[in-house]
Prior knowledge:
This protein is mainly α. The protein has five helices and two strands; from the N terminus they run H-H-E-E-H-H-H.
Amino acid sequence: MKPDDEKRVAANLARIMAMLCVRNTQLETLHAGLSPITRTDDYSDVFVVDADDRRIPWSEVSRIDENEMRALMRNIVNRLYTFHLHADDPGLQAQIERWMGAASEWDAPEVDPGMMRHSGSWPPTD
């Protein structure tokens, strides 16, 4: 396969896997809440007041707790596993075709240089 064809196939695969295995997961539930209003466009004017009356800047608020993160990662891993095991299943193929139009509208993927570093540490730091 020619390098340009490989890149096109990899880009389409990355987009559809992101759509089916990441976006269409519990992540949608986490994303479904109300979004705060900001007048500065950088959320520096948004604060959360917790049960102990701490006023926490929006940029410092954890928006996902450990249990939600664990459940989300389990959901994503299970979907990636299913995708790889059943990519040739007609039902999954129908879902891929159904969502490919929307996924193809996303920005073109780029190589993540942080993932390509061979420093031995994970996660990569930038």
